């Protein structure tokens, strides 16, 4: 979590697990920026790293993801403030996974050691002056006006030019105001289909300097389509059938949206403007900005990965996403302007491209039949240890800070302090963290608390509670009721894991266990005291001691900051694809992304999805619009999201491995909480308060990460 928003994570739904390599990437780049061979993380992006006031890593020793769920209500500050939350894969060497391994045990490396060719902090290339970027722009940073194409460059690269006979009938944006280095940037990208006329626009996206999508619209071609180019455009005949928007409509909207000093950014933007039949005087073309020798150009996909650490135009997606491409081009231009030509040249993009091609060729040569997988794994080279980036911090005079157990820092690098209590650690942290740019603060429950609450017992309690929350009982039904009709009605709330008839009651009841919390809650809210299969039924959860605070859990899950702006939609037909749903929901305002869950075994889509919106109010508006809405003959049911991606995945793993039904409907004897468990809850609540105090003391623009590393 950041004291102000500077980090964007792209993971949603099932992509909620990160490895220690990805954590290391994030911490290294946050600590060092572009220096010492550090690069943007591959899975998220830090904006304006040089404005970071510091990095604070809080470690809750011996606690794991399981403890977070068990004491969810006690972690009030954590779940209401920290917006990004991910499952962290296990690590055999936890300290090294945080900041890397030291190549030798010397207490401190010298600047000469760190700048040697074999180290993690290589010297600048002596051939920097020969780099085409340096030859074109020089080494000094310049404003954005230095990177806009001149009129001659536009003519040379086939841009539509005002007054050109080839551009007769083109619309001029009339953005004639003098450009300055503060002029606004806008990313633009189009997808085209081949028609009788040639390349015609079928989709247009425009994003602003903050990456906000201002326009993402399908366009009806004027003439007959010869080739939809679906593999690249993502456009199908079905998608364009209901579209009424014409090119002239888009031209008018773009002209109105662009300020008079706007600078358009795109990758090979000339083809987009030609297809749009529009003329704009001030452009930045990222295919020309990142200059190469002999007139060659880098692809946008490569630049996004090499410079921004972003994967775009993924093969599993149907076609390119113009909003994604426009945003990538915009961020590339922003990076170039902010960092300057010298920093860009230091990336050595030509070498990165060569290495990528060699790796692909090697991978193709190494491809083996299915039966050789084990042998291939056995012959893989040993993993090269990651260098310790704390060394690089020391060289620049930035002393890392470590408070807590000494075991985390065998190298003697940090200012270690073996404190006897969490309170002492907090007091030291409040004093010392403001003076450090990189701090690791360790809190601990204590070995006696962990010993008195073994993981197996905790796991069983959490699993049992989650299973009961996923379970509902419905009835009573008539003796000859139709089970198929009941299943069909309850499936409208979401995917069902199991459905069984309860035989112990005077009249038949059914016990249904759902796969997602939202489905169970939706069933309770929408089907209780309604007529199903000819009977007026009651829908309720199991009455157990653990479920007495279920309503509190549901309320707190809804308030969880990670669920803000996310809604759950059920009642979808299994035949609907992600493309179908994108098309159906395209009219919803501020829709950021759509997640369509899959069955782990069959790989088929579930009958529900999650929609994430840029603004919470837009999510609330969408709830009203979609509830009762019909899609392909199927009536939708919606509600606020309850379970974030990492919890949803964990629920499936635990309930599938457990395979039990919900708790008994009979009254369960209330068991008094043991003194040790009450004490443990108080300690966890106190830890949450300590994190709150430390977090509130941090400067703005501090990256703060809380880790639950587990016991092994």
Automatic annotation (TrEMBL):
Gene Ontology MF terms in the entry: exonuclease activity; RNA binding
Pfam family, one: RRM_1
Biased composition (Polar residues): 106-115
Keywords: Exonuclease, Hydrolase, Nuclease, RNA-binding
Record domain RRM: where: 470-544, 565-643
Stored PANTHER family: RNA EXONUCLEASE 5, RNA EXONUCLEASE REXO1 / RECO3 FAMILY MEMBER-RELATED
Stated name of the protein: REXO5 exonuclease
SMART domains: EXOIII (SM00479), RRM (SM00360)
Coiled-coil segments on the chain, per record: none
Region (Disordered): 98-130
GO cellular component term, pick one: nucleus
